[in-house]
Amino acid sequence: MNKLEMTEKIMVAKAEKQLTWEKMGKALGCSHVWLTSVCLGMNSAPKDTAFSLTEYLGLEDDVAHALMVYPTKVWDQAVPTDPLIYRLYEVVGVYGETLKEVIQEKFGDGIMSAIDFSMDVDKIEDPKGDRVLLTLNGKFLPYKSW
Amino acid sequence: MNKLEMTEKIMVAKAEKQLTWEKMGKALGCSHVWLTSVCLGMNSAPKDTAFSLTEYLGLEDDVAHALMVYPTKVWDQAVPTDPLIYRLYEVVGVYGETLKEVIQEKFGDGIMSAIDFSMDVDKIEDPKGDRVLLTLNGKFLPYKSW
Amino acid sequence: MNKLEMTEKIMVAKAEKQLTWEKMGKALGCSHVWLTSVCLGMNSAPKDTAFSLTEYLGLEDDVAHALMVYPTKVWDQAVPTDPLIYRLYEVVGVYGETLKEVIQEKFGDGIMSAIDFSMDVDKIEDPKGDRVLLTLNGKFLPYKSW
Amino acid sequence: MNKLEMTEKIMVAKAEKQLTWEKMGKALGCSHVWLTSVCLGMNSAPKDTAFSLTEYLGLEDDVAHALMVYPTKVWDQAVPTDPLIYRLYEVVGVYGETLKEVIQEKFGDGIMSAIDFSMDVDKIEDPKGDRVLLTLNGKFLPYKSW
Amino acid sequence: MNKLEMTEKIMVAKAEKQLTWEKMGKALGCSHVWLTSVCLGMNSAPKDTAFSLTEYLGLEDDVAHALMVYPTKVWDQAVPTDPLIYRLYEVVGVYGETLKEVIQEKFGDGIMSAIDFSMDVDKIEDPKGDRVLLTLNGKFLPYKSW
Amino acid sequence: MNKLEMTEKIMVAKAEKQLTWEKMGKALGCSHVWLTSVCLGMNSAPKDTAFSLTEYLGLEDDVAHALMVYPTKVWDQAVPTDPLIYRLYEVVGVYGETLKEVIQEKFGDGIMSAIDFSMDVDKIEDPKGDRVLLTLNGKFLPYKSW
Amino acid sequence: MNKLEMTEKIMVAKAEKQLTWEKMGKALGCSHVWLTSVCLGMNSAPKDTAFSLTEYLGLEDDVAHALMVYPTKVWDQAVPTDPLIYRLYEVVGVYGETLKEVIQEKFGDGIMSAIDFSMDVDKIEDPKGDRVLLTLNGKFLPYKSW
Amino acid sequence: MNKLEMTEKIMVAKAEKQLTWEKMGKALGCSHVWLTSVCLGMNSAPKDTAFSLTEYLGLEDDVAHALMVYPTKVWDQAVPTDPLIYRLYEVVGVYGETLKEVIQEKFGDGIMSAIDFSMDVDKIEDPKGDRVLLTLNGKFLPYKSW
Amino acid sequence: MNKLEMTEKIMVAKAEKQLTWEKMGKALGCSHVWLTSVCLGMNSAPKDTAFSLTEYLGLEDDVAHALMVYPTKVWDQAVPTDPLIYRLYEVVGVYGETLKEVIQEKFGDGIMSAIDFSMDVDKIEDPKGDRVLLTLNGKFLPYKSW
Amino acid sequence: MNKLEMTEKIMVAKAEKQLTWEKMGKALGCSHVWLTSVCLGMNSAPKDTAFSLTEYLGLEDDVAHALMVYPTKVWDQAVPTDPLIYRLYEVVGVYGETLKEVIQEKFGDGIMSAIDFSMDVDKIEDPKGDRVLLTLNGKFLPYKSW
User: Fold this and answer.
1) Which residue ranges form the domains of chain I, and what is each CATH number?
2) Which family does it belong to (chains A, B, C, D, E, F, G, H, I, J) (predicted)?
3) Which of E86, I82, I142 is nearest to J131 (CA)?
């Protein structure tokens, strides 16, 4: 079973059981953002999480095995078109140099890891329009001299 | 005076006075991330902030006028090359579909605004290696049906 | 049922019943432009509209569910080739800087939303050749300083 | 004098006289959107308008001659980056197929001209946030069979 | 029946009846160049021509309906690879600026329409090597000032 | 003197003498379309023509030498943006396959040369709008088998 | 039968009969390089060669008809990736300007035809490592002035 | 002195002395094709050749030093536009797979080197039109298994 | 059997037998890195290795034949997206010019062959985090003058 | 002083003193590969190294300050053209998937860091042709689940 079929199976089971990613994350004791990325095939799950999830959703072992496979991460277009994803791309374009200035001033020459990394999404209710709060948390990696 | 010359002038003054973006932000009562983006020419400053900044740095009025100009936001390459900025681009590629799933589950069909938007950078000290905490805060905009 | 199959079913029913988008919009009490975008899979329909439409066209519930799904908006080519669509792209290329000048002079630094947005198409009869009148109506979003 | 120098001269004169595109358009009896595109070098001006404008702004004849030159219309990037212009590009991407459906249903097989074409921008005041009203008006050109 | 299947059916019938585009154009009283573009799915046929053609070729009504559909004109590559088509692309690259100079000198600021447009291909016999004569005939559209 | 400076000199002389390409072509006994391409630096001139032209325009010998240089033909963008040139590109996209069908039916497997090639532009006056007549004349080159 | 199926059939027959391109070329009295290009679908074969080949390989007439079809020559990537083909592309990049200098010095302004063209491949045995000898032979086509 | 200035100096001296690449190659006892690539900055010259050339052309030592610099080989466009160079690119596109088939049949799995490589250009006089003979000679490099 | 099916068969057998690339390389007496590239279809295997491998894995002869086929090496994207592969691409971008400087200083003008080439991967255990040791070993090929 | 001017100054001093990167690395007690990347502006130097280097080369303090600046790492082309650098890019293309398989089999799901990273170049003398030995050493970073 490949990652595409795995995602399909999970999506159908999630819809039938009327679950949300948030409920699933809580039930399995992990971040619902990370869990979503695993179910969409962009991260691999440790064995425990993989089998807990398939048990929770009533899916066969093949799905668990597919969840454990290390994915090849591919995206289609250098410039994404979907407006929600484009806005994130635009933030990188508009604020990339700014973040470089500010992070390197605080930490020295180096980068924020996208591997030793976690992310969260929260909803802030606001009478003028609810707000999305996105939190990225990555280890700082200093450039090495050798 | 165009934005490039403005940035140059500010950078020199900042270096001579041994300031940091953080100190400058505190002195002017605004976010240092936003202030950096203004000084790099990716946002315009309101009149008050523009003149407070040039006074604080001892720069002439021309710089204040350049700070107030509405910028045309341009970046050079569809795929950024600098490693710090690329990691952010990679996060959009790897987690873009995940964020779409999670945000639209919590808020409905729509996007997180990159205009009615703010951003912050914090340093979390950690004996295993300090961490960068990036916070993005954008208004949710629901798609309209009409 | 995915969006492609949904569009196919609607197109066949529309052709069999010899309907136009305009008649369908009027019957459902909504803009025919918006309705077209929903049926082509570029917008999601609220539950009511989705079921009114499938009832009106005599289609099964699966189509209504597909209409309610939040779409991922994707287009194939950075530069469109079909002449009707290219002319619109050309207008953005030729008049993009002009619109930036004029809108920001009238509203300040910010953008016209493509999300809190509606659009209309009218026919102006003219003996020298009928004219297409396209109306775009989007909320102005000012850039935030923070 | 080339178009770039021409635009520079006009921008300086406009700023010194504290004019707006709207005032300039009214004074010359033409659309301020079209006039902006002429001054940015994306359209040529008829002789009368060119000299009326330089007289009005107190500029030399060279500027008038540059205004009359037929421009080569060039834009830099297949996908624009400035957020205001990108949103227009996004509208073409998201609604291009929709507009093709609706226009060709109303007019037959053909296109909306981007040459025999005019455009307007209006501000609609609204307590929930002002709105931008963009009006595109182009002659319908039917495909010819021969 | 989509345009691809339509083209296939016509090609098979044309081969079986050992017709040429030229004979077919004469039989139907229209340009064989235009007819070819219709049969390749790049133009729509008026109802009369569509049914005359299917009758002439002994094809069912589905083909006629497919011929009447307004096509979405798509080509695959910004730079064509087939040598015959590339040479035409090269002519546009090498002589584009020249044609702009010459056409706008004769007609004023504007373009040659590719919509209100016809085209012909002739063979000029020549002992030193036959020559292809391509004739493009398009309405001049002046830029509008407004 | 490079080709850019050569073009500049010729353009200035042509404007001062209020000449047209057509007049210049007639005076020199050659096609005005070809002459334009030579003056824009996209073709080289034979020695005679080069010196006749500089004499006619009252320009120094350096210009004649620059006219004789074999040019490197470069154009900037895979997809041209200027509307006049884009329409020609569109004709290649829309009708490329059609021309391949028709030419190869008439001539066999091969191409129309863009080197052993000439081109003409005529104005057809028409009360419904003047028309541009473009004539391309290229030697047919059959593919060789060996 | 399309060119892809044709190539497949020929490849299978060639492998079963343990033939080489060289043997096949000799048997048919033509260049084995040209014959390979025909069998890969990049050139068409004259009727005689097409039927000689299918007879020689024991293949049905459909294959001969497919060999006679005038191909549309398409390649996938602007920059080829396979190392053997990339090296040829690199030669064009590194030595393109050099060849232009040398050829135009010897022949005048013009090009080497890729249509009236043949090519050969030889093996030069050498104790320090065998060498590939590639010979390209194309008619010189002078640019025409008109 | 960089490679661009070096090329300029050599071109001027070559023109003044009315030399050809062929004469220069003979005088220096090396291939005129290779010498041209050295003078255009696409190869480095050994010390002897570099100084022989500058002596022969009457140029200063700086030019010799620039000739000896190992160049960074860069070309501008994935798809070349100049017709002479494009035809070579087209040959790679049309015949790349053919050459792979033929070379690997004769030599085994491997490539023709573009580094341990030489090239020649000859003129074959022919009453039906002279022909360009291009000879590429590269060492065969077998893929290694390890 | 094509290379894709071959890879699939090998992957299934490898998983069922719970082998690693390292164990397979040792068993066959060859580098496990090279063996992996062969099994992924990016290199061909000599006859002996091919049959040893299929015997070892209990696979049919078709797989051995597929292993012996000379592959066409293709990769999809100019800029790879998977983070592990992107980091390697980034190393080429960041250190490419550096490696050119250092290698050409040590060896003269030339390149490191990617054909007469081998590669190894080792794990260096380290309490602060294990390290990947990648060793590339390629023959130096000097540019030839001729 | 920007990085370009810094590189220029260092290159001139290095040439005048007839140094090599290797000698410079030894003198300063650091890797000559890393030092080269610092001098080419692709890495920043710690204060000590920066001043040791300028003292060693007899350069002013401005160069030391430029060496300490955190660089923005930019490279021009998605696919490099210089043959030495292209071969490295080709290795990533041909062996990228192989390295992913082998590294992830040995280390688990994760990547080799290009930041906590070092690199070395050695010359292996060999009568059949010297060999380049490239060693890449990067920390393994496991993907985090959270």
Assistant:
1) 3-68 (1.10.260.40), 83-142 (3.30.1160.10)
2) Belongs to the cyanase family.
3) I142
